[in-house]
Specification:
It is a single chain. Among the domains are: about 80-130 and about 155-260, no CATH class; about 395-485, 3-Layer(aba) Sandwich (Rossmann fold), CATH 3.40.50; about 485-590, Immunoglobulin-like (Sandwich), CATH 2.60.40. It is built from 20 helices and 28 strands. Strands 1-2-3-6-7-8-9-10 form an 8-stranded parallel beta sheet. The protein has a 6-stranded antiparallel beta sheet with strand order 13-19-20-28-24-25. Helix 7 (about 175-185) packs across helix 11. Bound molecules: zinc ion. The site of zinc ion has 8 residues, from helix 7. Zinc ion binds near residues 128, 171, 173 and 175.
Length: about 600
């Protein structure tokens, strides 16, 4: 039987709009709207806004939204927290320099990856999202965005000044210094402050405090977290980020008078990137794909599983340097593997019709994917939407994620994915991540893999009461043998499996995604393989299904019956000529 709580957890209708597993998301609006038809598009994820308040710009933007709506697509407009530095220079032509992030020496900071951009003789300044004038410009962008009947809002570079403090040397502007002073005063007693070296908090200036301790601007840029009070300063900036991001979304929803599907340009790939999760409906952005290895990367799988733990979704694209490599080497076939993998693991990969490429040498440049290289995969996704939407990972093993154990759990997630050991991730959050594990959540699993550091907020105690076997992650070799071999693939290596079920519908089949990873660089394609897949009884039992029949769906092929053989371990099936991606439906009666 499907554990009831899982059904409740995932089947209660969410009031917020969502991105579905079968959505075909255009990263930018298409300059030629016929591309929407070619790719069977359903969403524009990062749809921009009127460039100015001129009627012509507004009408052009409304036209883009209308083009999408005519096709029943949802249109998410976007605002930029960093890259629209030109717009802000024009918005506050006399005072824009007052809003530039400052380093420890008071020097203006720039956006490092926009080194090749300039406007009216100015470089791409990193403007401070804590500056009220700059916040007024963010609201101005929202007002322009809301001049059309949009369905969602996307924020690019949402982390603003909190990213500047994390790795770009700032910000020591008066607003950040004031804000940090108030943060400390609100949080700590005078005694605690004195222990931190702060005698009079009213007069506290973090910049002077660091300078007096011999910290240099370069040191702060490289290792802010190691500088005195660096972790608190980052926490302050993270709090500020959440406030600004929340206000921007709420402002847009007020102006439009409805809920908008919310996203930021990010991926669930580090503790810092998870902070924003409660404020958004999906992550829409770059997930590094390590194109230069010319292999199908396993790393994105961690992100796809992590968003599932947060009840979110990733609409992925690759990183700027990945697209630069694809452009330089002319390898759309490698991109096809990225698309298939994202969908097989419950997330989506955005249509690669117009891709931002970046290298240190070439700066910003662009690559344009052709529909003939990709559209058939997206059509395959749409045709099999019923085998994707509402589905979640099926597993008897759960990895217990906590921020403190990030590296271990990520390592475990990748190693288990490579070994085709099914798992889910459960998030044991902390102050910055408002998710908590409960006894009901962990109850259905046979194995719980945890990191070496205890879970926060009483969750370690909950973990210890579990009936499941708790395994501290020390590598694949140290896992109990029983955990391995639940799913085996014979005949070709490497093949990656993702097994998913629909807890909302007891009539739905079990779905097994089979990805052939045999990418050939010269051919720029997958070498077909004959494989035999065995799925163990312990996994099948969890789906509540007595599997007797199978159907197979492959890109470019006809759907066909797939003979299923019962074996001692569970069920077995053979696939001849497995291409890039097969979806196998497993059906039968309820147990
Ligand atoms: Zn600042």
């Amino acid at each position: 039987m499907i554990p009831v709580f899982i059904a409740v957890l995932f089947c209660v209708g969410s009031e917020r709009p969502r991105i579905h597993a079968s959505d075909v998301v255009f990263m930018y609006s298409a300059s030629d709207p016929s591309q929407y038809d070619a790719y069977s598009g359903t969403v524009v994820g990062w749809g921009g806004r009127p460039r100015t308040r001129d009627q012509r710009d507004i009408e052009a933007f409304r036209g883009r939204v209308a083009e999408a709506h005519r096709r029943k697509m949802r249109y998410c407009a976007s605002v930029d927290f960093l890259v629209d530095f030109r717009g802000f220079i024009d918005f506050r032509p006399e005072t824009f320099m007052d809003a530039v992030c400052r380093d420890l020496d008071g020097n203006p900071l720039h956006v490092p990856w926009l080194w090749d951009h300039e406007y009216k003789g100015h470089p791409a300044y990193w403007f401070c999202t804590n500056n009220p004038n700059y916040q007024a410009y963010l609201r101005d962008q929202v007002e322009r965005v809301c001049m059309a009947p949009i369905d969602g809002l996307h924020i690019d570079d949402y982390s603003g000044t909190s990213a500047c403090s994390a790795y770009n040397g700032g910000c020591f502007c008066p607003y950040c210094m004031d804000g940090f002073r108030r943060y400390l005063k609100d949080r700590f007693s005078e005694k605690e402050l004195r222990e931190m070296g702060i005698e009079q908090v009213e007069k506290f200036d973090y910049r002077r405090f660091l300078k007096e301790r011999g910290i240099t601007a370069e040191q702060f840029r490289r290792e802010s977290w190691r500088c005195p009070l660096g972790d608190l300063f980052q926490d302050f900036q993270n709090q500020q980020m959440k406030e600004v991001v929340g206000e921007i979304f709420e402002y847009a929803e007020r102006l439009r008078g409805r809920r908008l599907v919310r996203s930021v340009n990010s991926s669930a790939s580090s503790p810092r990137t998870l902070i924003v999760a409660p404020l958004i409906d999906y992550f829409c952005g770059e997930v590094p794909h390590h194109a230069s290895t010319a292999e199908v990367p396993v790393e994105p799988v961690f992100v796809f599983r992590m968003v599932e733990a947060l009840d979110r979704r990733q609409t992925a694209t690759a990183a700027g340097h990945d697209w630069a490599w694809i452009k330089a080497n002319g390898k759309p076939g490698l991109v096809r593997t990225w698309i298939a993998q994202a969908y097989a693991f419950g997330s989506t990969f955005m249509v690669p019709h117009r891709q931002w490429c970046y290298t240190r040498e070439l700066g910003t440049h662009w690559w344009y994917g052709r529909p003939e290289d990709f559209a058939h995969i997206y059509r395959f996704v749409r045709e099999h939407a019923h085998l994707l939407d509402e589905y979640i990972s099926l597993a008897d093993t759960a990895l217990i994620y906590s921020n403190a154990n990030f590296s271990e759990i990520r390592d475990a997630a990748l190693k288990l994915a490579e070994a085709n050991i099914p798992y889910v991730i459960l998030a044991a959050g902390d102050e910055s991540l408002p998710y908590r594990i409960t006894s009901e959540m962990i109850e259905p699993y046979d194995y719980l893999i945890a990191g070496s550091k205890p879970l926060p907020d009483g969750q370690e105690e909950i973990l210890q009461t579990a009936n499941a076997k708790i395994v501290r992650w020390e590598g694949l070799d140290k896992l109990p043998d029983k955990m391995k071999g639940r799913i085996t693939v014979d005949g070709s290596d490497p093949v990656r499996i993702s097994i998913r079920h629909n807890p909302c519908s007891s009539d739905s089949p079990l779905v097994c995604h089979i990805l052939n990873l045999n990418y050939d660089f010269e051919m720029d394609d997958i070498r077909p393989a004959d494989v035999t897949v065995t799925i163990g009884e312990s996994i099948l039992k969890r789906s509540g299904l007595d599997v007797r029949f199978g159907m197979i769906h492959m890109i470019g092929g006809k759907s066909a019956r797939l003979p299923i053989t019962k074996v001692d371990e569970g069920v077995k099936f053979e696939i001849k000529g497995l291409g890039l991606w097969a979806i196998v439906e497993l059906k039968g009666g309820r147990i």
